[in-house]
Amino acid sequence: MGRELLKEKNIVITGASGGIGAEIAKLCAARGANLVLLARSLDKLQQLQSDLQQKYHVSVDVFQLDVSDTNQVKEVFKQIFDTIGQIDILVNNAGFGIFREAHKATMDEIKGMFDVNVVGLMACTNMVLPKMRERRSGHIINIASQAGKIATPKSSVYSATKHAVLGYTNALRMELADYNVLVTAVNPGPIATNFFDIADEQGTYVKNVQRYMLQPEYVASKVVDSMLTKTREINLPRWMNMGSVVYVLFPRLFERLGKRVFNSK
Ligand SMILES: NC(=O)c1ccc[n+]([C@@H]2O[C@H](COP(=O)([O-])OP(=O)(O)OC[C@H]3O[C@@H](n4cnc5c(N)ncnc54)[C@H](OP(=O)(O)O)[C@@H]3O)[C@@H](O)[C@H]2O)c1
């Protein structure tokens, strides 16, 4: 769909050194977009940069960035604007989770998840907002999660960060509607990435949800297909999203009947 739409567009992706961020980068490059890839692992970004430049002959810039460091975010985005002039699409993808019961979560873990998943995402968004509003064009894509719709045991903190991302994204979409700036939330269920190396140290959750796992290439293809279209939300897989619709209508019943499934972490 609209394969020419992304040609020569400038797309910035946070958390592009692996997982769905790297897959989004590959698909954008295949559609002729110019890329700016951000993450802490510069070596991985440089490897991806060289692969994409060789294969697709597109422009790829990389910058080391820890999105939880607000000063670094400011400096890096200044460098990005100096290098490429204009950002057409920002994909706020950097994020991580730690599955632990609330009483066992340390303050460092709690602040760490909020600093990256929420404050980092807002900091990057703030860097592109003034110019997108002024130009009256652009697209901000926030990778949230199904955990932003249904909170389950052992994901209290992670779910709280993703609920925050969804709230922020919904308000942002309304604020920007008159400025022609598009805003999309992406809410995937479990995806087979390295995310679980940190989130699920014991491997219990991965074992329990193995058969539902989405492939990162598939999630990335849905994200890339939505670029520069008026897609409000992407919810994957569809059946899991039906669950969150039913949850809103019958929360007490849903929590009782879903107890076994919700306790799969
Ligand atoms: N996997 C899932 O089941 C799943 C489901 C729903 C939503 N999500 C969301 O999807 C997004 C991508 O996750 P993924 O599954 O692709 O996980 P992943 O394979 O672990 O990739 C996470 C990416 O985020 C980057 N990152 C982490 N902390 C960062 C920081 N402080 N500053 C900058 N970059 C940082 C990592 O790069 P560096 O380590 O190099 O910095 C990496 O590129 C996350 O927001 C996650 O919450 C994942």
Please describe what this structure looks like:
This protein is α/β, with parallel strands linked by helices and 265 residues long. The chain has one domain (3-262): Rossmann fold (3-Layer(aba) Sandwich), CATH 3.40.50.720. It is 52% helix and 14% strand. It has helices at residues 19-30, 42-56, 70-84, 107-135, 156-176, 195-199, 204-209, 216-226, 238-249, 251-257, 259-262; strands at residues 10-14, 34-39, 60-64, 89-92, 139-143, 182-188, 233-236. A 7-stranded parallel beta sheet has the order 3-2-1-4-5-6-7, sandwiched between helices. Strand 4, helix 4 and strand 5 form a beta-alpha-beta unit. Helix 1 packs parallel to helix 2 (42-56), helix 1 (19-30) crosses helix 8 and helix 4 packs parallel to helix 5 (156-176). The longest helix has 29 residues, at 107-135. The structure holds NADP nicotinamide-adenine-dinucleotide phosphate.
